[in-house]
Predict the structure.
Amino acid sequence: MTSTLPSVSISTDRLVLRPFEDADVPTLVEMMNDEAVTAWTAAPHPYTAADAEHWVRTGTLTERRTGRGIVFAVTEFLTQRLVGTVRLTNTDWRTLATEVHYVTAPWARGEGYATESVLAVAQWLFRDRGFERVELRTAADNTAAQQVAQKTGCISEGVLRNAWIARTQTEDGGWTDIRTDLIVWSLLPEDLEGVADQLVDNGGYGVSGYGNGGYGNGSLAGFADWN
């Protein structure tokens, strides 16, 4: 039997991480058409309403039900505005390891939301689900994504040379593929010791709880695959 992660919502002081809903489609389209997201992810470009509807109604469900991982819509607690996404994928149930990918909307950058949401998901995985490793991969030139890895306590393990295809904008406004290295980061349960407390001391946030959720019918962008 395939193992799966439960459908849950995770709350922090500022954010709610929950399943995607149909109402998220217009904002998801806007977020995924941002230039930084286009550059650092494998998302279709242009990203259409049909792409978003397929992802919300089918892709996110398939990710969890097949045991590959889970997808969270990251929303502000006060405004309920969509500000990003966190995705766990390529989960290895024997080793209790998974990869985390994340995207932050252009209107929400500079607020520390990516760090907050990735850390919240990692705490849930380690404390509630018994996971032993979270892996993160960032393109070599994506310094914003690398800063998130560092702030969450990730340890850099090495470089996968020429392992990813990013995109760069051409003079005529189009896009062309370019090959790039990937930096591999890892986060283990012991790496989180003191990280959350340090963020709170610096005016950051705390994780406030988990709840059952239901799936409905940067520049900051971590390595992300939107097939």
In short: Helices lie at 25-32, 35-40, 49-65, 113-128, 143-151, 195-201. The chain is about 30% helix and 35% strand. The two ends are 24 Å apart (CA to CA).
